[in-house]
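Hi V.,

Quick status before I head out on leave. The structure for the redesign project is tokenized and pasted below; the design run finished overnight.
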């Protein structure tokens, strides 16, 4: 099964494609979509969502996984823009018939490390080990997207075992 993981963001949107076969993961491709800060919001969102669609088509993904927004009272305005990016991505994936599951940062951490309060470095290092990569992918958004894809595979596997 080919999974697209997404770490949504307006300036930097991380993505990672992994194959999940027989409880093993294989990295396929990963990167980050960058948008210029001075660009019109609508153009930035269109760029991100269309690139995600292109990546999904190119790599023939069958499902996607995206990290839910985590924000505090101090980051409300940026969270609103990221939520717009998420909506556009969900729309593009939906048009392509690609189901997308949303996972909280806590769910991703639990899935990757077994500990929901693991720090970012622990999650990224475990993802690197699971994918047998020589180093943690940079920037962080890319590594986070790969973690979201692994979380989807783990979740799918658990659901299949219990027929949820």
């Amino acid at each position: 099964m080919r999974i697209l993981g997404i770490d949504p963001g307006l300036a930097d949107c991380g993505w990672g494609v992994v194959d999940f076969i027989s409880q093993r993961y294989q990295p396929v491709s990963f990167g980050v979509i960058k948008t210029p800060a001075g660009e019109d919001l609508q153009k930035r969102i269109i760029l991100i969502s269309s690139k995600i669609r292109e990546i999904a088509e190119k790599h023939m993904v069958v499902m996607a996984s995206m990290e839910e927004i985590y924000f505090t009272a101090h980051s409300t305005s940026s969270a609103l823009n990221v939520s717009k990016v998420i909506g556009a991505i969900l729309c593009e994936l939906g048009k392509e018939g690609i189901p997308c599951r949303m996972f909280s940062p806590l769910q991703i951490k639990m899935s990757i490390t077994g500990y929901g309060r693991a720090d970012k470095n622990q999650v990224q290092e475990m993802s690197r080990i699971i994918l047998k990569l020589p180093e943690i992918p940079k920037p962080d958004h890319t590594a986070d997207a790969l973690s979201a894809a692994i979380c989807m595979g783990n979740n799918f596997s658990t659901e299949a075992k219990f027929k949820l």
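Above is the designed sequence. The chain has a mean pLDDT of 93.

G. will cover questions while I'm gone.

Best,
W.
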